[in-house]
Design goal:
Strand content: 5-15%
Distance between the termini: 21 Å
Strand order of the largest sheet: 1-3-2
Oligomer: single chain
Shape: elongated
Helix content: 40-55%
Number of helices: 3
Largest sheet: 3 strands, mixed
Length: 130
């Protein structure tokens, strides 16, 4: 199992994973609020939904910039980004998303499987050679 090269890379992976998960949850909440606001014809609820939508857009921009630097230690492809590379034939999705699978497994299991090279990577920093 491969390991990450530095503590900053580990922090970057964790932050990108948390931002991705938070964005998904807030997107569902914003869509639900829009539907509820239209159904009730409630202006303050509409304003809250638009504000939440703006925050989702902000998280998307920040998350995409951060995700481009989360690279697999073996194939060097950003696993949290969205490159136009071909996925491995055994790569699996979670709720229709490869990135969601990588984010949740890296946060809660402590390792992830790269969707491009299918190699397992532990969320640990490799020991330095001296």
């Amino acid at each position: 199992m491969h390991r990450l090269s530095s503590i900053s890379t580990l922090r970057r992976f964790r932050l990108a994973a948390w931002l991705f998960c938070l964005r998904q949850i807030l997107m569902i909440a914003a869509i639900s609020l829009v539907i509820l606001a239209v159904h009730r014809d409630d202006y303050p609820l509409t304003l809250a939904a638009v504000t939440l939508g703006g925050f989702v857009i902000f998280l998307t921009v920040v998350g995409r910039m951060l995700a481009q630097r989360t690279k697999c230690p073996l194939c060097m492809i950003p696993v949290m980004g969205s490159p136009s590379c071909v996925k491995h034939r055994k790569a699996r999705k979670l709720l229709g998303s490869y990135r969601l699978r990588v984010a949740l497994s890296s946060l809660f299991l402590g390792y992830f499987s790269c969707p491009y090279c299918q190699e397992m990577t532990s969320m640990e920093v490799r020991a330095s050679r001296r």
